[in-house]
């Protein structure tokens, strides 16, 4: 009696599982965007993923712009003092050269034969 009871329980579990599988298989009508390759649901998921990527690209672009602007400002701050010193040194040197001009003695015509008349 035990064997038959065990078999009947096993049969019951098998019988219960079969209708569950049959109920899950349904004929679902799908609209193909590209017949045999791209369905409407796949197309919709691709569009939503693309929109998400576009939002992400915009966020990254904005972040990169802010970072690059800040890097450029730091670069300018670091170059300000060396450039100012270089500019002041060059202008001071030019000013001193203008103030301390030496007199050009010119060439001595007696020693330079090519300056004499033929």
TrEMBL record:
Pfam family name, one: DUF4639
Start and end residues of each stretch annotated as Disordered: 1-23
Listed name of the protein: Uncharacterized protein C2orf81 homolog
InterPro entries to which the protein is assigned, alphabetical: DUF4639
Highest taxon listed in the record's lineage: Eukaryota
PANTHER family with a match to the protein in the record: CHROMOSOME 2 OPEN READING FRAME 81, SI:DKEY-97L20.6
């Amino acid at each position: 009696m035990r064997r038959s009871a065990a078999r009947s329980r096993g049969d019951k579990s098998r019988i219960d599982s079969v209708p569950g599988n049959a109920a899950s298989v349904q004929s679902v009508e799908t609209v193909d965007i590209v017949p045999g390759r791209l369905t409407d649901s796949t197309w919709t998921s691709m569009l939503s993923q693309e929109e998400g990527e576009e939002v992400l690209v915009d966020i990254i672009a904005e972040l990169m712009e802010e970072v690059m602007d800040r890097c450029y400002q730091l670069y300018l701050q670091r170059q300000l003092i060396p450039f100012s010193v270089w500019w002041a040194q060059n202008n001071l040197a030019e000013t001193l050269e203008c103030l301390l001009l030496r007199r050009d003695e010119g060439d001595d015509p007696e020693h330079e034969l090519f300056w004499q008349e033929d």
